[in-house]
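User: I need a structural model of L-lactate dehydrogenase (Cytochrome) protein from Rhizobium etli for a docking pre-check later this week. Nothing fancy, just the predicted C-alpha cells so I can convert them on my end. Input:
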Amino acid sequence: MTISSGNTDRSTRLCRDALCLDDFEMRARRHLPKPLFGYIAGATETNASLRHNAEAFQAYAFRPRVLRDVSRRSTETSLFGNTHAAPFGIAPMGISALMAYRGDIVLAQGADRSGIPMIISGSSLIPLEEIAAVSPQAWFQAYLPGEPDRIDALIDRVAAAGIGTLLLTVDTATLPNRENNVRAGFSTPLRPGLRLAWQGISHPRWTTGTFLRTIVRHGIPHFENSYATRGAPIISSNVTRDFGKRDHLNWSHLERIRKRWSGKLVVKGIMHPDDAARAADTGADGVIVSNHGGRQLDGTASPLQVLPEIAASVGDSIAVMIDGGIRRGTDIMKALALGACFVFVGRPFLYAAAVAGLPGVLRAADILKAELHSNMALLGVTRVTDISTDYITRA
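Assistant: Understood. Predicted C-alpha cells for L-lactate dehydrogenase (Cytochrome) protein:
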C-alpha cells in the first residue's frame, strides 16, 4: 500500500525547490503547529548537545587527492550482509505519524525505494508489523520495558514480524528535562486545549491533511510498539508511566536479549569506548555512537568527537555507526573518515515527510546521495571504504 502525499502538485513543487536538507526544515517550521515543530527541533535544557552535534563537523577539513580516475565511483555500501545504495539510513523518530499522515509508513516507503534502511521507532504510533510489511529491510528500535517478561514478549513480537535487525536504545535511564517542549506547548501526554486548538486552526494544511485524516481513518493514535501489546493513547496519563521505568536496566538485560534474539543486534546510545567494548563482548553486532540528537543529557559531547576513540576500541569486531547533526554529503564523509561504516539521519527526513509526504522523503534521500556522489569525486575516491583519515585534517 502506498500512502498518497495529498496535494501532488504542491509536493512536487516543494521537492523541486528543495536544494539541501535544511530547506525542508524551513518549510516544516511554517507547515507544522509550533508544539510539533518544537518537539522535533528541540533538545534538552540549554540545547548544548544539539549545538555540539552541528559544530563538531566544522572542526575537520578535507585533504583531497587529484588526478585520479573517479568516473566509476559508487556510493553503494554493505552492512550486515545487505547492500545499500548509500552509507546512510533513516534514524528512528517517535510519533512521526503525528507530523506526517502515516509518517512511519511514508518514511519506510521512501527508504525502501531509495535503497537505504529505515529504523522503526519504539515510540511509533503505527504497529511495527504494518511498517515492516512496507519495508522488509527495516530495523526495529526498542526502548526496553522495565520487566524481563515484557522484554521477552517484545523481542518475540519483533521476531514474528520478520524483522532481522533489532536496535536497543540504551541512553534513556530516565525522562530528561525537555523544557523547550513545554515552552513550545508540547506535552506528553498530549493535552488538548485552547492553545493547541489555535495552532490547529492556524495550520489548516496539517490539520486537515494529517490530524483530522488520521482521526477519521484510524482513531486516536496509540503508542503501538512499546510492548508486545498495544500501549496507551497519546492523550492518556499512562504515557508518562509507560516510558519512565528504565533506571534499573543494566548489562544483564542486554545479555538476556542476546540469548533470545537470533538476528542482528545493535546498541544505540554508546558514547564511551569501554561501553562499546562491553557491547561487543556481550555479542552485539554493531553500535551506534549517539547522544540521542541532544535530547537526553544536556552537555554530552557530540558523537563525532568520541567516534575515533570508540572505533579504535572495537576495531573490526563490530559495525560502528553514528548519528547526530548529519546534514550534508560532506558530513557523511567526515564520519566515515573518522571510523564509522554507516550513518543515520533523523530530523531532516521527518521534516521532508511532513511537508511533502513520500515525494519529500525520496527527494531528501536523492539530495544526500547526489551530494555524496559528487563529493567523493572531488575528494578523489571511488569507494565508500576508501574514505579514511588520510583525507581529513583538523580545521
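Before docking, keep this in mind: The chain has a mean pLDDT of 93.
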